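Cast an eye over this sequence plus tokens and walk me through the fold:

***
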Amino acid sequence: MKLGEEALPEPPGGSGQYAGGTRSVVIVAGDIAAHPDTTVGETAQRTGLPQSQVSGAVARLREAGSVETAPDPADRRRTLVRPAPGTSARVAAVRAAGTSKVEEALAKALGDAAAQAQVAGALEVLARYLVPRGAAAGEA
């Protein structure tokens, strides 16, 4: 989680613009990916984060183009959150810069070049197995 936090770039306008920090954004993004068409309240309940932090994380993710929101067809008072289809320009930029940011975070955490290479390889294997189907082709 900490490596993921360090690898994420600052959002446009700085991180102080939203409630919560980078960690809550990572947690919320993971929960939304695992539970598409969810609400902020449901995400808050599953993650244990305060609803204000989840709302801030959703706003940040929506601005980045990672998620989209829509009224619940069954109850128009509720808003559903789901991963955005396709890849936004912001997500593409983060992914393009991601490798060097992850390498920087690994270097800071591990120091040893051999350990960095080993952990980076293990992360690549994890990514292959944990990325949702279709996302590897740039769909998610």
Strands lie at 67-72, 75-83. The first strand starts at residue 67 and ends at 72. The longest helix spans residues 89-110. Confidence is low (pLDDT under 50) at residues 134-140.
